[in-house]
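Lab notebook, page 48
Experiment: co-folding of the full assembly
Goal: obtain a model of how the components sit together before planning crosslinking
Operator: M.T.
Materials (sequences as entered):
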Amino acid sequence: MFWLDGSLHEKPLQPFDLTDRGLTLSDGLFDTSLARNGKVFLGEAHLARFAAGAAALGIPLKIEAAAQALDALAGSISDGALRLTLTRGGGARGLRIPDDPKPVLFGAATPGRGELIFSSLALATTAIRRNETSVSSRIKTLSYLDAILANKEAQTKGADEALFENMAGHVACAATGNVFALFESRLMTPPLSAGVLAGTVRAFVLAQAKACGLEPVEQSLPLAEWLKADAIFVTNSLRLLAPCNALDGQPFASAEHPAIIRLQDALRAAVTAECGSF
Amino acid sequence: MFWLDGSLHEKPLQPFDLTDRGLTLSDGLFDTSLARNGKVFLGEAHLARFAAGAAALGIPLKIEAAAQALDALAGSISDGALRLTLTRGGGARGLRIPDDPKPVLFGAATPGRGELIFSSLALATTAIRRNETSVSSRIKTLSYLDAILANKEAQTKGADEALFENMAGHVACAATGNVFALFESRLMTPPLSAGVLAGTVRAFVLAQAKACGLEPVEQSLPLAEWLKADAIFVTNSLRLLAPCNALDGQPFASAEHPAIIRLQDALRAAVTAECGSF
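Observation: model returned without errors.
Model output:
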């Protein structure tokens, strides 16, 4: 199901401006969220982050329209994945940002029973570095090709997803999510300055850590330190909290780690409280 | 004027798949070229590079369709800027590359009298580094947001265009073109491995250097060395060869440099020979 110009559409083929800068120059951003029982999990956090990203790129966003789109899409599928996309809209040839942009907002909903939730992942590092020198590394922009290429590389190595190091040589994030490492009771994740997205589940996990007996720490560490972790996991809006079962071929028994089970229980309770069912 | 599905269209609003991966994930590439007198300057080189980029990304391209689009678009405006865009087409949600992609090719032509040709530029370095660890730094992909942001930063500094250094701390390229520096008779430009596009005018200039009394050298150098150059210029398909009149506020009398005038003469002669007029 698709949302465009204030209403739902069944077909993806819609009138679209071929000069749209989102299409021609990846000048835009998106957001992915989880629908359960017709409601958006962490919906307010998703809208707030979407608005913050749009503001950082200087793209005007009507937040009420984004909220309406999310609600309509979630209602249309009940359970599944939602996506909002905001582009800077059509414009003259060239890079220069139009003085009077006409942004385009559209959305899509993909039904699904949540088979990704809590599913485990094998990670493999990629030769492509995360470029923390650009603000685009901290926004879910449409410039996503490096993540596609890195994931393809990871899959040729037999892994499920790529793990990015950044220019400074520190672990930054996975291709589609934030990463965490457990060292005894320390729960460590790279700071946003490492070139990572302010993930909504990342924020949830950091906020819930103490209640789960963990000490949250935002810190950059090289890969060699990550390989010494007791457990590693990836967070994103569709997997919620995905235990890492291998990193560059080294096995991790993350799914059985008691702290990870406690964090997953906290997520399950939050989804149930917010959406009415898990 | 626009080209889509084998024919020209006057209006940019066309039926387009909202799941197109070029639009949603910048999974695609483009090419910009110069039309003079209804013909494409360096047309064969543009098509060859477009095909090489598509092959590197694993996106099937019907080269005859691309050639037909370029010819039709050039004929439609006589003089101006042409753009071809190839995306991996529609697909299921997520990063995974479809097993059976349905690529989408479209084009646009913008009439113009060539006011950009040989026009001078002020450059300013940007805090955003060129990420030479990704093959996408050497292909004209749709992931162009960093160039937009870098150019905006350069313009707030009073310059016309951004100059990128790469992760290794060497000068790489401008936001919309390759860069060259003259040191006496040495004509220096960064190698492709520095994270730069294989520009068609870059290749032309390297091939013409000896006939213009210059020794072409592909070499990476830090910014401090560039600031000692006798002259600096940018090459791209619409400006052809743009003398740099300032870099980070330091003036350069590049437009008056005899070697640059000789290279511009060579370009003028080549356009005239290939297109029938300049």
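Interpretation: Chain A touches chain B through 56 residues (CB under 8 Å).
Next step: discuss with group before ordering constructs.
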